[in-house]
């Protein structure tokens, strides 16, 4: 018999759409960072066996295991994103050295949330900015995305699958960090932000505005604005797009408008142009930013707005005299960096990007290569704001459609940033000197050019460039990694090609350490150690500075990073390449570059420390980094050396050690321009805490690094101290990480303890959401005077977020028996191969009993652990008709009234899977059944 079941739709859904339609006018971008449940380790999917299980396993919404909507995650750890589980673990000799000897593995995340019925009809999109490394995402039991790169964001249109009201939306993410994409520390987990974006059904898509100013003549600029609209409705629409250029104060400078027909259920691209005269330019010294506000209107009503940032600047690359910013020559003083920091791994709070970039600017760097992957959006915003030029780099060298989409995602997301000057399609690929490599680069470059013709495409090659067919023939700027001996030959052979060093140096040093003992894994900080393929910092800059045709350098690296512990392996767990250590404390290389790069203020720094106990009379190597003309060295009032400054090599002396005061004086044009003093200190007596900022926002995001030192009785920092420090924190903040820059340290990066390494440690504090008042940090160490630090936590508006709710068990997978005239056995077995006489139905929809008066609703479920142990309560919302409730074939309760009402039944404790049968009786023709949600509390 064929069953005819009439669906009486929950009336809300249709009328709701129509009613809400007039108020769909603004986008909301809500943070989805809070309240994730996390499980470390894999949860294998249950084996699928049998007819019915196999059948339903293949159906939408029916994912099993930890991807199922009703999976019990109540005992999982609750945390906020960004999260990197690898950094929480111990350093382990059995793990990969490249990943900093950190175990990575597999983890699961789940998040339940509600969507207001008022949002019906809106376009809803989930956004994940970065998950390391591979992941599969389910929404409401449907697999909705697989992401095969830890460095690309992805966006999931969830509109069709959204549930509203008390029906929960459940995201499950399986993160596979066994796989690696790099040979450096990559972290593990949802390590960048996540979002829920609500928009009008006709809206500007994510990354859908391209508005990058172009200079027309001496005073006129144009911003060609390309806007991509998505219309998720099944009718086309006449829309108006308006774009205004706003200055930093929000004043309108210029605007433009156009009309367009937005196609039904499709994307439409609109173009307009905003003309501007004499804007203020963006430069590294004065990074003036403007905003482009794009407004979408329909029937005179604003239905979407999106604001993007832009900067007015020109970039020019030449084959003979290098790079020009705003027509002024500028040598790129660049650094390469990975994206991790001490204590937090790759889950770097936004404010830490500012901290790191300011350190690089302090060194005199003006450029940054994102090695070897696209960075976070917040990082690029900081580069725009602070004035740092960026080489944005693609991760995977692969020209197949899936990987091309990773590349084009990067360009679409990033092409409005004035900071970005170069797109890099690869780093050091074995196919760089082959025809295949050439063809792949050609294709990748063409894909970039479809999206942006204003910036050149480069590739960082470490060889192959003299092969008959090679990638240099496919790029706009040829990037050399190392191969310094080949710069001139290549330039001579190809005088019209634009060349840059894309990676150089690979010199090693450990901060505050002045001897090299390879057996002990120590490296001196005099810039003497380098990789066989590399050069010292001093050799590198000399080679590059003396070649005007080169755009500049990109030092490997600005900061140390976890992993790739060259030139060592176990027990060294961190890299040694940085000009700053993992915490951002300067090494000698930092001062070398300051002296080489900074022209507008005097620089003078001397190493080493002056605490050489028991070494009286022994010659100590002293190195001065200065941009003066001459440096004089004075020990305890006596001149011990004087040299003309060698601007590349810097200056060194062997000075017989005498405890006391070592001074350096810098002279230019015969006048003293700089002075540096270092003194022999006494024993440490007290701790000093110095925050990077004295005030942070109480938004739960803002984080501040605090420098930890010890001082002697005269208040002088003891640079040789390696004492243990313990921290106690009070107030609305957390310690989110600790570090000390020692690549050989195996101390935990989480917790509240850390030793100083050569006089320094770092503790990173982050406000709690709703934070107001003060945080108080106490640092203590046996025998020393403790330090107290207060940081003001400024009340700040909450970051608009998706509310965190306590998940509850919803029974939403039901089978409905045929409707019959005679009372059926409510516990009748369903035949194993019967996929048709019982219909799968969700709760929340009543049925018309046109063929009789009886029907059975059946659901199998596993109660949450606590409910298995102590029992629970089943709540039937809007149960309609008379009903018998059976659990595991035992009658639990009877509802005698026909009327629709909420009905609750206590269920006894019991382990494992349970079977619930609801026998409904009503008058033929009536609607009856599970008229609302069924929840177990
Ligand atoms: C380069 C590579 C970098 C890093 C560096 C170490 O070849 O591009 O990622 O491994 O060597 O010297």
Descriptive tags:
single chain, 937 residues, mainly beta, Immunoglobulin-like, 6 domains, eight-stranded parallel beta barrel, six-stranded antiparallel sheet, 10 helices, globular, disordered N terminus, binds beta-D-galactopyranose
Describe the structure.
- With 937 residues, the chain is mainly beta.
- It has 6 domains: 4-15 and 203-313, Immunoglobulins (Immunoglobulin-like), CATH 2.60.40; 28-199, Galactose-binding domain-like (Jelly Rolls, Sandwich), CATH 2.60.120.260; 346-602, Glycosidases (TIM Barrel, Alpha-Beta Barrel), CATH 3.20.20.80; 612-672, Immunoglobulins (Immunoglobulin-like); 686-794, Sandwich (Immunoglobulin-like), CATH 2.60.40.10; 809-936, Sandwich (Jelly Rolls).
- It has 10 helices and 61 strands.
- Strands 24-25-26-27-28-29-30-33 form an 8-stranded parallel beta barrel, surrounded by 4 helices. Strands 3-2-4-10-7-8 form a 6-stranded antiparallel sheet, with no helix packed on it. Strands 50, 53, 55, 58, 60 and 61 form a 6-stranded antiparallel sheet that branches.
- Helix 5 crosses helix 6 (435-451).
- It starts with 11 loop residues before the first helix and ends with a strand.
- 47% of the residues are buried.
- The model is unreliable at 1-24 (pLDDT under 50).
- InterPro entries: Beta-gal/glucu_dom_sf (IPR036156), Beta-mannosidase-like_N2 (IPR054593), DUF4982 (IPR032311), GalA-like (IPR048230), Galactose-bd-like_sf (IPR008979), GH (IPR017853), GH2_Domain-Containing (IPR051913), Glyco_hydro2_dom5 (IPR040605).
- Residues 687-789 form the Glycoside hydrolase family domain.
- Keywords: Glycosidase, Hydrolase, Signal.
